[in-house]
Amino acid sequence: MSARRRYWLMKSEPDTFSIDDLERVRTEPWNGVRNYQARNFMRDGMQVGDGVLFYHSNTEVPGIVGTATVASKAYPDETQFDSKSVYFDSKSTREEPRWFLVDVAFERKFSRTITLDEMKQHAARLGEDFALIRRGNRLSVLPVSAAQWKYLLSLE
DNA sequence: GCCAACGTTGGC
DNA sequence: GCCAACGTTGGC
Question: Name one Pfam family in it (predicted).
Answer without folding.
Answer: EVE
